[in-house]
Amino acid sequence: MRLDKFLKVSRLIKRRTVANDACDGERIVVNGRQAKASYQVKVGDVIEIAFGQRTMKVEVLDVAEHVRKDDAAALYREIL
């Protein structure tokens, strides 16, 4: 699954276009490298998202095309 779609499906970012802009703005890092929106997300990838002054780091636990809103948090685990 593409990175921008994963960020939207997992509810880490609200809209896919915003996720795409974040990738283009170099605010998304996957496994220590800047990532494009077309990057294919795999289980075990570590994604860092820069939200202004705050950075969120998550590990991908599952990749699913369609997920209910209640189950979206099961796709990743936040790393402190």
CATH level 1 name: Alpha Beta
Number of strands: 5
Task: Name the average pLDDT.
Answer: 95
> Termini distance?
25 Å
Shape: globular
Q: Indicate the multimeric state.
A: single chain
Radius of gyration: 11 Å
CATH superfamily: RNA-binding S4 domain
- Number of discrete domains: 1
Topology:
Layout: H1 3-9, H2 16-24, E1 28-30, E2 33-34, E3 46-51, E4 54-60, E5 76-79
Antiparallel strand pairs: 1-2, 1-3, 3-4, 4-5
Helix pairs in contact: 1-2
Notes on the structure:
This protein has 80 residues and is of the alpha+beta class. The protein has a single domain (3-79), classed as Structural Genomics Hypothetical 15.5 Kd Protein In mrcA-pckA Intergenic Region, Chain A, CATH 3.10.290. 20% of the residues lie in helices and 28% in strands. The chain has helices at 3-9, 16-24, and strands at 28-30, 33-34, 46-51, 54-60, 76-79. It has a five-stranded antiparallel beta sheet. A hairpin with a 2-residue loop joins strand 1 (28-30) and strand 2. Helix 1 (3-9) crosses helix 2 (16-24).
